[in-house]
Amino acid sequence: MATAATRPLVEPDRVPLLYLDANVLLPEYLRAIFLDLADAGLVRVHWGEEVLAEVRRNLLQPRFGLAPEIVDRLFGDIAAAFPDALVRGGKPLEVRFKGKTDPKDAHVAAGALKLSEAVPGGQPVVLVTSNIRHLPETAFAGTAVRPARPGAALKALLDVQPDVPDVLDAMLARFKNPRVSRADLLDILDASNCRAFATALGKAWGMTPAG
């Protein structure tokens, strides 16, 4: 049986199954990209209760400066849009990652593994995280979970799914204050360690990212 590490990150004949870490849901535009792609049916997104708690806790910090009512509305909208996204029951699996992941990130690894065990047919789960150092691929040996940085996951999706640029165009049309152009988004992606995806998306749009 092939493990996640021996299979393509995104398979052309399957909608990718993604487990999102808090560091993917925190940045506004990165969060919007993954949620809009999920709303369009190009990916399926999941997360755990501790992931959401971390996102909420950080959004209320001065760095983000969001009022509690705005955060509550955001979480309400996400829950309504993705009612099946929450993965529960991963806590008992955390022990499997002792010494393999950073202790603070064991809940993320366990949530992704719990999701993979609940999916029939052995479909791989892509654990999308900006923290590969604390969630290394070696920790998931023998499982159907494969960690990947956001840019790698998005680039792999774009390689097999031609509708990605159109979905992101529709997303940009929703941003009014401030307005965000294609060039702006490419710059944001480039600054967010998603350069390969920014380059590929720019080519799909007939553009190139700055820098």
Description:
Helix content is 45%, strand content 9%. It has 211 residues and is α/β, with parallel strands linked by helices. The protein has 2 domains: 16-148, 5'-nuclease (Rossmann fold); 150-211, no CATH class. It has a 5-stranded parallel beta sheet with strand order 3-2-1-4-5, with helices on both faces. α8 (182-191) runs antiparallel to α9 (195-204). The longest helix is centred in the middle third of the chain and has 14 residues, at 68-81.
List its salient traits.
211 residues, alpha/beta, Rossmann fold, five-stranded parallel beta sheet
Give a concise summary:
The protein has 211 residues and is of the alpha/beta class.
Estimate percent helicity: 40-55%
Envelope shape:
globular
Order of helices and strands: EHHEHHEHEEHHHH
Uncertain regions spanning at least 5 consecutive residues: none
Instruction: Tell me which CATH architecture of the largest domain applies here.
Output: 3-Layer(aba) Sandwich
Q: Count the helices. How many?
A: 9
Q: For the residues shown, what is the average pLDDT? A: 93
**Which strand order spans the largest sheet, edge to edge or round the barrel?**
3-2-1-4-5
How many DSSP E strands?
5
Cα end-to-end separation: 43 Å
Number of domains: 2
> CATH top level of the largest domain?
Alpha Beta
Measured on Cα atoms, how large is the radius of gyration? 17 Å
- Mind summarizing the main beta sheet? 5 strands, parallel
